[in-house]
Design goal:
The protein contains 29 helices and 22 strands. Helix 11 packs across helix 25 and helix 14 packs antiparallel against helix 18. The radius of gyration is 27 Å and the shape is globular. The protein starts with 11 loop residues before the first strand and ends with a strand.
Length: about 750
C-alpha cells in the first residue's frame, strides 16, 4: 500500500543538485521530465551542507533544506508541482555521516562543551583516545600565528579561534576571558589555549590520532551513531515529516554499509516511513545476494551494470585486449588487491585498525600483550575478505565466502595465531562485546574494499576499463544470453523494484563512455594495433606503459567531446593519483601527469586525423559504438526492476570519473531537439518509457527471455496473460558468433512488438 499521492514506479530520473542547480531549477524542468516519461524525480542530498559543497553528502543539518538550494519553501513548491504533474519525489538521505567541521552546529557545540554537549551522543567518537583532532594546518600553530592565519576573536560573547577562514569554538575559561579583555595571544598563550580544548589542530598529513569514525578515510566526515534510537529519531525528523505529508515518495539510503547495524537501522526506517520504496546504496560482489531480511525494495543499481557489460563484451575481443595489455598491468588481480589492502591498513586506515584491534582485545578478554597478534590477525582477515562486509553485527553469522577468508589468511606465509579466536567473534551472537567488534570490523572491511579496489586497483588493472567499474571487477568474464536471462529472472523474483542503473554520480565512466571500449573489443585486430601504438608512444616518452593502455581508452571515449583536452588532463591527474604508483594526492608528480595527458591527447589527435585507423574502420567502429549505446539503454529499460536514468543520459553522455560525471546538463538544448545519435537515443528512451508506462507491472515483475535474432537480440517480457517483445539491433560481431546460428522465434499471440534502430 502506498500513499495516495504516490505514482506507480515506472522510471526514476536522478538530478544532481548544486553547481548551479537548485530546487527552483528542478521545478522548471518538470514539464520536460513529464514528457520524457519518468515517474519519479530522484534528487541528490538537499540538506544543509558545508559551505561550497558540490555534492551535498557533507551534511551539516539533516533537518533543514539547504538555503543555497532554496530552503524548505522551495522544496514544498517543487513537491507540489511534481504532484500536480503526476510525478513523485525520491530523496537521497545520508544517515552514516555528517560534515566534521566547525560549520556543523552540532560539532561546534561539542567542540565547546566536549562530552557534556547534548549533541555528543550523535557521533561515533572514542573519547578515551583523546580530544577531537582536526588535521587542517600546513604548518605549526605558532607558524600560523606569526603569519596572521590564526587569531583569537569573539562572535558575540563566544570565544573562537580563527584558523584560516574557519571559526573554531573555544571553551570559556579564565584564559579566554583575559584574551577577550585585550591580552595579546602569543606563542606561549596559544599553546596553553590549545591544551585546554576538547579538540586539537594539527598538520593536514598527520591523521594518526583521529578519534572519530570517518567515512572511508575522509577525515572531514564523521560517523553518526544511528544504532541509538534517539539519534535516529533526531536525524530523521524532517524526512519522516515530509513522507507523512505526502511530499516524498521514496528514499535512497547512502552508504548503508557504513552503519554499525544496517538491518536494525532499516527496520527502524521502514517503521518510520511506512510503505514507500526504500533503496540502499550497496555494492555486492559477483554472485553475492542482498543480505536477507532487509525491508527494502532493493539496491540502487550497481549490481545491474556489470551483467550488461558482460553480456555485450565479445570474448575474443576481451582476450585480445587483455593479451595486448598484459605486460604493463598486474596479472593477478586478487594478489594486487591484497597487497594494496595491507599497505592501506598500516597507513591510510591506521586509526580504524587501532579501534578494531582494541574492540577485539576487549571481546577476547586478552591482555595488552596479545595486541600485536590480534592486530596481525585482523589485517590478515581483512586482506582476504571476499565481500565489502558481512553482517555479523546484525547477528547474521558470516557465510561460506567469509570462511574462505579465514582459510586464505591461514595460507599466508606467517599466519597469526589469533586468526581463529578473532574470526570466532563474528559468530558469537549473544556476546555484546563480540557484536561491538563485529560492527567495527565490518565498517573497516567495507571502507578498505572500496578504497583498495575501486579507488586504487581499478586504476592499475586497466586492460579493459568497462570492467573497472563500481559493482564490477577487472577480472570479470563475459556471460551468455542464458546466464543474463537467469540473472534478470532472479531480479524479477527477488527484487522486482530494485533500481536499474547504467550511469550514476559515482560511476568511473558513463555507460556511453564504457560502450566505446566494448566497441573496440568487437574489433580485436584494431584493438591490438592501437594498444600496441599506445605502448610504443609511452615508451618513446619514457612513461610507464600501463598509462599508454589507459590513455588510448580515454582517447577513444573522448572523441569529439567538448573541452576534451582539459577534461582529459583533469582525469589523468586523478587517475594517476588514485593508482598511487607514480603520483599521489599527497605528493603529486605533475611532470609525469602532464606527460600522460599529452600522450592521451596525441593518441586522440591520431584517431581524429585517421593515423591509427582507416576510414572504413572508423566508420564501422562508430556504428558499433552507437549500436551498443542504444542496446544498453534498451536492456536497462526493458529489464526487471526500475530504470534509473542519470541526468543527461537520455541523450549520448560521455563522462569520466567525478567531478566530470557531475557536470551541468544543458536541458534547454535537449528539450529544444537534439540531432543525430543524440536524437536517436532520446527517441528510443521516450518510446521505451512510454511502452513501460503502458504496463509497468509487466515490466517490473514479468518473466524475462532473451534470444538471438538475425538482427541482434530480442527481449520478451510476460506477465499473467500479457506479453511484449522488443527487438534490439546489434552488429553480428556483438550479438553472436554468426547469423546462421540464430533463429527467428514466433511471437506469442498476445504480443505487441517494438523495434528500433533499423
Amino acid at each position: 500500500m502506498r500513499h495516495p499521492s504516490a505514482p506507480g514506479l515506472v522510471a526514476t530520473y536522478r538530478i544532481q543538485l548544486r553547481n548551479g542547480v537548485d530546487l527552483e531549477a528542478v521545478r522548471a524542468r518538470i514539464p520536460w521530465l513529464q514528457a520524457l516519461g519518468i515517474s519519479h524525480i530522484y534528487l541528490s542530498p538537499l540538506f544543509s551542507a558545508a559551505t561550497g559543497s558540490t555534492h551535498g553528502y557533507d551534511v551539516t543539518d539533516p533537518n533543514r533544506v539547504d538555503p543555497v538550494l532554496g530552503g524548505d519553501e522551495a522544496f514544498r513548491a517543487l513537491s507540489d508541482a511534481a504532484r500536480a504533474a503526476g510525478l513523485g519525489i525520491i530523496l537521497d538521505i545520508v544517515p552514516n555521516h555528517m560534515a566534521f567541521t566547525p560549520e556543523n552546529p552540532f560539532i561546534a557545540d561539542i567542540m565547546r562543551h566536549g562530552q557534556e554537549s547534548r549533541f555528543a551522543p550523535l557521533f561515533d567518537i572514542d573519547w578515551d583516545r583523546g580530544p577531537l583532532q582536526f588535521p587542517v594546518l600546513d604548518g605549526t600553530p605558532a607558524d600560523l600565528l606569526d603569519a596572521e592565519q590564526l587569531a583569537f576573536s569573539l562572535i558575540g560573547n563566544d570565544p573562537i579561534l580563527r584558523v584560516y577562514d574557519k571559526h573554531y569554538p573555544l571553551r570559556a575559561t579564565p584564559l579566554t576571558e583575559r584574551l577577550a579583555g585585550g591580552e595579546t595571544l602569543d606563542e606561549g598563550l596559544l599553546a596553553q589555549l590549545l591544551d585546554e580544548q576538547h579538540w586539537q589542530i594539527g598538520h593536514w598529513q598527520e591523521d594518526g590520532d583521529i578519534v572519530h569514525r570517518r567515512f572511508f578515510n575522509v577525515t572531514d566526515l564523521i560517523g553518526v551513531r544511528q544504532e541509538d534510537p534517539e539519534v535516529f529519531e533526531f536525524t530523521h525528523r524532517w524526512i519522516v515529516e515530509q513522507v507523512r505529508a505526502g511530499r516524498v515518495q521514496g528514499v535512497r539510503v547512502d552508504h548503508i554499509d557504513g552503519l554499525a547495524r544496517p538491518l536494525s537501522y532499516l527496520r527502524r526506517l521502514r517503521e518510520a516511513l511506512g510503505f514507500i520504496p526504500i533503496w540502499v546504496e550497496k555494492i555486492v560482489k559477483e554472485g553475492e545476494p542482498l543480505a536477507p531480511g532487509w525491508p527494502v525494495e532493493g539496491m540502487s543499481g550497481y549490481e545491474f551494470m556489470a551483467p550488461v557489460t558482460q553480456l555485450l563484451t565479445p570474448s575474443e575481443g576481451l582476450d585480445a585486449l587483455a593479451a595486448a595489455a598484459r605486460a604493463p598491468v598486474p596479472t593477478d588481480y586478487a594478489l594486487e588487491v591484497r597487497g594494496v589492502r595491507r599497505t592501506m591498513l598500516y597507513t591510510v586506515f591506521t586509526p580504524e585498525l587501532d579501534r578494531v584491534t582494541d574492540a577485539a582485545i576487549m571481546a577476547l578478554a586478552g591482555s595488552p600483550v596479545a595486541a600485536p597478534e590480534v592486530r596481525a590477525a585482523i589485517v590478515q582477515l581483512a586482506m582476504h575478505w571476499p565481500v565489502y562486509r558481512s553482517y555479523a553485527a546484525d547477528v547474521m553469522p558470516p557465510g561460506e565466502l567469509c570462511a574462505q577468508a579465514l582459510a586464505g589468511a591461514r595460507g599466508d606465509p606467517h599466519p597469526s595465531g589469533m586468526l581463529g579466536p578473532v574470526f570466532s567473534l563474528l559468530s558469537a551472537p549473544d556476546d555484546p562485546l563480540a557484536r561491538a567488534f563485529a560492527a567495527r570490523f565490518e565498517q573497516l572491511t567495507g571502507a578498505l574494499t572500496a578504497k583498495s579496489e575501486e579507488d586504487t586497483v581499478f586504476y592499475r588493472s586497466i586492460a579493459y576499463l568497462p570492467f573497472c567499474e563500481v559493482g564490477a571487477a577487472p577480472d570479470l568474464q563475459p556471460i551468455d544470453l542464458e546466464r543474463f536471462a537467469v540473472r534478470m529472472n532472479e531480479r524479477a523474483s527477488e527484487t522486482p523494484c530494485a533500481l536499474n542503473a547504467l550511469s550514476t554520480h559515482d560511476t568511473k565512466r558513463s555507460a556511453d563512455a564504457r560502450a566505446a571500449i566494448i566497441a573496440l573489443a568487437a574489433f580485436p585486430e584494431l584493438g591490438v594495433r592501437v594498444y600496441g601504438e599506445a605502448l610504443a608512444r609511452a615508451q618513446d616518452r619514457a612513461l610507464p606503459p600501463r598509462w599508454g593502455i589507459y590513455a588510448i581508452q580515454c582517447a577513444l571515449m573522448m572523441l569529439d567531446q567538448p573541452d576534451a583536452a582539459q577534461r582529459i588532463a583533469d582525469h589523468m591527474a586523478k587517475a594517476m593519483r588514485e593508482a598511487k604508483l607514480e603520483s599521489s594526492y599527497e605528493e603529486p608528480a605533475l611532470e609525469i601527469e602532464n606527460g600522460v595527458t599529452e600522450l592521451a591527447l596525441s593518441l586522440m589527435a591520431s584517431l581524429e586525423d585517421g593515423a591509427l585507423w582507416s576510414d572504413d574502420e572508423r566508420a564501422a567502429f562508430m556504428q558499433t559504438w552507437e549500436a551498443l549505446m542504444m542496446a544498453q539503454t534498451a536492456l536497462q529499460i526493458t529489464a526487471p526492476g526500475v530504470p534509473d536514468i542519470y541526468q543527461g543520459t537520455e541523450i549520448v553522455a560521455i563522462a569520466l570519473t567525478d567531478p566530470d560525471n557531475r557536470r551541468a546538463v544543458d536541458w534547454d538544448a535537449i528539450a529544444s531537439g537534439p540531432a543525430g545519435r543524440d536524437a536517436r537515443k532520446l527517441k528510443l528512451t521516450q518510446d521505451l518509457l512510454a511502452r513501460r508506462r503502458q504496463d509497468a507491472e509487466l515490466f517490473a515483475m514479468g518473466s524475462y527471455r532473451l534470444e538471438r535474432t538475425p538482427e541482434g537480440l530480442r527481449v520478451t517480457r510476460a506477465w499473467q496473460n500479457r506479453a511484449v517483445t522488443i527487438d534490439i539491433p546489434l552488429p553480428d560481431r556483438i550479438a553472436g558468433p554468426d547469423a546462421a546460428a540464430r533463429s527467428q522465434h514466433d511471437r506469442p499471440h498476445e504480443t505487441q512488438g517494438t523495434q528500433y534502430g533499423r
